[in-house]
Design brief:
Strand order of the largest sheet: 1-2-6-3
Bound molecules: iron/sulfur cluster
Number of helices: 18
Strand content: 5-15%
Order of helices and strands: HEHEHHEHEEEHEEHHHHHHHHHHHH
Largest sheet: 4 strands, antiparallel
Helix content: 25-40%
Radius of gyration: 23 Å
């Protein structure tokens, strides 16, 4: 058996959904794409100052030799994150790949598998570096995935050829047998369902996404206020967004397939309810939320509260009013601002009375303006329910 076959067999034995091998030359197509619209990625520099991730300079991923000068090949494994079902109460709120904790600080079956694979390569005397390559393009070069117009990688064979997967590249210092690339788009010519489903216009053309307009990016990387004109478009998403994957007919088969429930997540679902996120203590955040959903820094709990307020405002459920009223007294103006917006959006007598009361006490000019706006919009009856 060749070294390539030994490595592939081990990857599949460890539970990866697919594995392929790519050559290691620079990703020039990638460099051209990000170079053609640098303004869309400028936010990545300095990202580590406000999020629990490294600065994102995509140019670093162009040439694998930058990280491993002896690199000869890329082994790309594909992990499927939708083998188990997610609790219904979290649907439409947190992106599935994040809920599955693919790369979170907690130990998971995914992180264990990655460690074992790395150790296996090491025991074979292979030097490897995990990660630094454009994962979707590497997957297409390694023949394990291709593209959809929604920019996602779709599996060539695994997971019913859906996009509920991620590619994970390993740079290695051995010449392995490369697979035939599958760098193509396999969408029906006239399909635009993903673009039509995108509420913000982030997906503005086939294979073109402006991250600055993406709900996912805004949910965890926008440091301050969510612009007013953007808030109603976020729906109930508080961390990530799956809409352009859910809308895709090629994903439907897997989406609708009966799968076992993820029992651990079911037990934890209450930790991520919108009301809980809005009102959570620092302890709750650090111990229950951050270990799984960690992009937002520990000291930025207010970002979660902001997102939860926007989601509750969009949900227009009067039962959220007491919780939103309670955070009108939160020490963070950012939280009060978005709570005032949400109360204005839900409406009703209690919401209105609470905004009027807070207007008399509020000292922060920005929050005051939001309260005025909220009051000017705040219907005396509940917006969507029409309840007195
Ligand atoms: S993740 Fe959501 S906001 Fe982002 S491109 Fe897809 S549908 Fe649009
Ligand atoms: S929704 Fe249609 S165009 Fe978009 S990725 Fe799916 S098949 Fe392709």
């Amino acid at each position: 058996m060749s070294l390539t076959q030994i490595i592939k067999e081990k990857a599949l034995e460890l539970g990866f959904a697919a594995v392929g091998v790519a050559t290691a030359e620079p990703f020039t197509l990638y460099a051209e794409e990000i170079g053609s619209r640098p303004e869309m990625y400028a936010w990545g520099r300095g990202l580590s100052q406000q999020a629990s991730v490294r600065d994102l300079d995509l140019n670093r991923f162009v040439d694998p030799a930058r990280y491993l000068p002896e690199v000869k090949s890329l082994v790309v494994v594909t992990d499927s994150y939708f083998e188990e079902d997610f609790p219904p109460s979290l649907a439409g709120k947190i992106g599935r790949c994040y809920l599955k904790g693919l790369f979170c600080p907690e130990e998971t079956s995914h992180s264990r598998r990655r460690k074992e694979f790395k150790k296996f390569l090491q025991d074979l005397g292979i030097q490897s570096i995990y990660g630094p390559a454009p994962a979707r393009l590497a997957g297409a070069r390694a023949g394990v995935t291709h593209y959809g117009k929604n920019c996602f990688a779709f599996a060539n064979e695994a997971a019913e050829r859906s996009s509920w997967i991620v590619n994970e590249p390993y740079l290695v210092d051995r010449e392995l047998e490369a697979d035939p690339p599958t760098l193509r788009v396999d969408c029906p010519e006239n399909c635009r369902k993903c673009m039509e489903a995108c509420p913000t216009g982030a997906l503005y053309a086939p294979l073109k996404m402006d991250p600055r307009k993406c709900i996912a990016y805004n949910s965890y990387f926008t440091p301050g206020e969510i612009p007013r004109e953007f808030r109603h478009r976020m729906g109930t998403w508080v961390y990530g967004c799956d809409l352009c994957q859910e809308a895709c007919p090629r994903n439907r088969k897997w989406l609708e397939k009966k799968k076992p429930m993820n029992s651990k997540l079911l037990e934890r679902a209450g930790d991520f309810s919108l009301i809980q996120l809005l009102t959570m203590s620092q302890d709750h955040y650090e111990q229950k939320v951050w270990p799984l959903l960690y992009y937002i820094r520990k000291e930025n709990r207010k970002i979660w509260q902001r997102n939860a307020a926007v989601a509750l405002g969009n949900q227009k459920d009067p039962e959220a009013i007491p919780a939103l009223v309670s955070v009108l007294e939160d020490p963070e103006p950012l939280v009060r601002t978005h709570a005032a917006w949400a109360l204005g959006r839900i409406g009703g007598k209690q919401a209105r009375a609470s905004l009027e009361k807070r207007r008399r006490l509020e000292e922060d000019e920005r929050v005051k303006r939001e309260i005025e706006e909220g009051l000017s919009l705040c219907p005396l009856t509940f917006g969507s329910q029409g309840v007195k």
